[in-house]
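agent> Task received from the user: take the single chain below, predict its 3D structure, and emit structure tokens. No templates, no multimer pairing.
agent> Plan: (1) validate residues, (2) run structure prediction, (3) serialize to tokens, (4) report one or two observations.
agent> Step 1 OK, no nonstandard residues flagged.
tool_call: predict_structure(input=
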Amino acid sequence: MSSVIHAIVYCTVALFALTSLGNIAHRALSRLIGQPATPPAEPGDSATTPPDPRNGRVIGTLERLVLAAALVFQSWPLVAAVIALKSVARFKALEQKVFAEYFLIGSFFSLLWALLITGAWLAYDARWGLDLQGQLTALFAP
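)
tool_result: status=success, residues=142
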């Protein structure tokens, strides 16, 4: 029973680091490099209100969760699909240099953060945990 509680704790810590801590780290990086807190307006955007930064946090959180799942299951096509989906969704806006830089920094940060946190979680899980990756892989193997 204590090993299950241990697994719940280290998985919760990893999810917190991947999501909430990832958002905090991204904001800190943005401030450090002088990047705006909200994305610049897209070309042709006639909206008078600036984009809501909460939307970006939700997208970044979901992106890191999907990337983490892809890494756990070693699904490299899913990693590529996440990157492609983001690029297609913002294709027109990427023509604007300021927006493209904002978008690329956020995307690369999410990818690197997901690699770092998921790698640390998998290493901990394999060494001191229940080898959840192996169990999940066996469970979902064809």
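agent> Step 4: summary for the user.
The CA atoms of residues 90 and 118 lie 26 Å apart.
agent> Done.
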